[in-house]
Amino acid sequence: ARNSNETGIFLPHLVASMEQVEETYIMVKPDGVQRGLVGDIISRFEKKGFKLTGLKLFQCPKDLAEACCWEFIDDFNLFNIYLQWLQEHYKDLNSKPFFPKLIEYITSGPVVCMAWEGAGVVASARKLIGSTDPLQAEPGTIRGDLAVQTGRNVVHGSDSPENGKREIGLWFKEGELCQWTPAQAQWLRE
Ligand code: ADP
């Protein structure tokens, strides 16, 4: 629907605010970081036209916990909190046989945490990412182009708007997200 005020004048800057804006949590997994795919992955969401509102490289503290053993009890506690938090992130999967390997994989090195915003971003990001099994993922998708195995599928994307909000809340602290208006906004949407 066209957006106008009482005078009937078209106000394009109000259109975006009328749309259902969604958020999704996208994460380049440790294999994506190690293989130097971070730029390519970010680029696909940027070029599509979604808005980046949060971005950080995050070193999963498992190595730290293994290295510091029991003397550094605070860090070890931190590690346990982190594991519980990962279990919360993957709460639908923690009864699956591959769950311990999944945690091992996700904590095996730095990950790139991202929050992206836009109308329809959750489902669209899932399409850009492709099927869970990279061999089934369509060419042109991230997994279809860049991966060969489910256990090394380079990227995570939230599966619903509710989980998008939930996961952004888990992975980002208050103050780490940035609200801004991209200069290209008027060239992306009428
Ligand atoms: P998606 O990441 O496509 O939303 P799921 O939510 O089903 O897929 O699974 C979450 C992650 O768990 C996958 O991306 C993958 O890293 C891992 N995973 C899922 N199924 C398997 C499996 N059969 N073997 C190993 N890892 C798996």
Automatic annotation (TrEMBL):
It is found in: Mitochondrion intermembrane space; Mitochondrion matrix. Keywords: ATP-binding, Kinase, Magnesium, Metal-binding, Nucleotide metabolism, Nucleotide-binding, Transferase. Its EC number is 2.7.4.6. Residues 21-179 form the Nucleoside diphosphate kinase-like domain. Coiled coil: none annotated. Its cofactor is Mg(2+). GO terms for biological process: CTP biosynthetic process; GTP biosynthetic process; UTP biosynthetic process. The active site is at 156 (pros-phosphohistidine intermediate). The keyword Transmembrane helix does not apply. ATP binds at residues 29, 98, 126, 132, 143, 153. One of its GO terms (molecular function) is nucleoside diphosphate kinase activity. It catalyses: a 2'-deoxyribonucleoside 5'-diphosphate + ATP = a 2'-deoxyribonucleoside 5'-triphosphate + ADP; a ribonucleoside 5'-diphosphate + ATP = a ribonucleoside 5'-triphosphate + ADP. GO terms for cellular component: mitochondrial intermembrane space; mitochondrial matrix. Belongs to the NDK family. This is Nucleoside diphosphate kinase. It comes from Citrus unshiu. The lineage of its organism: Eukaryota, Viridiplantae, Streptophyta, Embryophyta, Tracheophyta.
